[in-house]
Design a protein that fits this description.
Layout: H1 3-13, E1 18-24, H2 33-42, E2 48-51, H3 62-73, H4 78-89, E3 97-101, H5 103-109, H6 111-121, E4 125-128, H7 137-145, E5 149-150, E6 153-154, H8 160-169, E7 174-177, H9 190-201, E8 208-211, H10 217-224, E9 229-232, H11 234-242, H12 248-264
Parallel strand pairs: 1-2, 1-9, 2-3, 3-4, 4-5, 6-7, 7-8, 8-9
């Protein structure tokens, strides 16, 4: 059984929802990514989404764009991200790690090499923002061969046929983008999420995580009642940006603890 499935099964037994924070690998520095990952887990994270920085991040708002720019300036690469996961696994063998990014760096490495490397270092899932299900079959085969879950995005505008397609291909969990726009944009419409989730559940048996636009404990708590997991990205990356290297792990940990307490209430 995969780490992702084990985690969601355990949470379901406890009648709790997953907290899935996102950080960008290499931000605020190459040296602090692994300590930040451990800090997120200590603060109550269930699954970690680790962003692979890319020069043209089309789905990301200004906060995560700046994080990618900082990480790339520090020399962050896809192989460097793999090394970080390998380092993280020396102390943590149970928390699922999902790489989130874009197809270009993976295409440059080659899907087979990438998938094999993911398996070797302990990556559990891969979410490639610009790879729709129609174009994912080759990638899907490589990931499946190495036991890596392909994770897909669904949006408010996703039609029934696309939901069915994703339901066939997805593993691990499905990420529902709660609003139209980039990460960190707009205000959440909880009623729209409440309306959409039952439509998704008609086809999708996997856990459903909801992200984009969740910026505080109140929103995280409200969203958690509608789905299986809450994904928080821009707000956490903003905390990284606003902290010093000396206090970033503590500041991010404090924020994640607040989210954890709210979701568990």
């Amino acid at each position: 059984m995969s780490r992702i499935q084990t985690t969601f099964d355990n949470l379901k037994q406890q009648q709790r929802k997953a907290l899935i924070p996102f950080i960008t690998a290499g931000d605020p520095s190459l040296q602090l990514t692994v300590p930040l990952m451990h800090g997120l887990v200590a603060a109550g994270a269930d699954v970690l989404e680790l962003g692979v920085p890319f020069s043209d991040p089309m789905a990301d708002g200004p906060v995560i764009q700046r994080a990618s720019e900082r990480a790339l300036k520090h020399g962050m690469t896809l192989r460097g991200v793999m090394t970080m996961v390998e380092e993280f696994r020396k102390q943590d063998s149970t928390t699922p790690v999902v790489l989130m990014g874009y197809g270009n760096p993976i295409e440059a490495m080659g899907w087979e090499v990438f998938a094999k490397s993911c398996e070797e270092v302990g990556v559990d899932g891969v979410l490639t923002v610009d790879f729709p299900p129609e174009e994912s079959h080759e990638a899907f085969e490589h990931l499946q061969r190495h036991g890596i879950a392909p994770i897909f995005l669904l949006a408010p505008t996703t039609n029934e046929a696309r939901i069915e397609q994703v339901a066939k291909l997805a593993r691990g969990y499905v990420y529902y983008v709660s609003l139209k726009g980039v990460t960190g944009a707009g205000n959440l419409d909880l009623s729209a999420i409440e309306h959409k989730i039952p439509q998704l559940r008609k086809h999708i048996k996997l856990p459903i995580g909801v992200g984009f636009g969740i910026r505080d404990a109140v929103t995280a708590k409200a969203v958690s009642k509608l789905c299986d997991g809450v994904v928080v990205g821009s707000r956490i990356v903003q905390e990284v940006e606003n902290s010093t290297e000396q206090n970033v792990v503590a500041n991010v940990g404090k924020l994640v603890k607040e989210l954890r307490v709210a979701i568990d209430q």
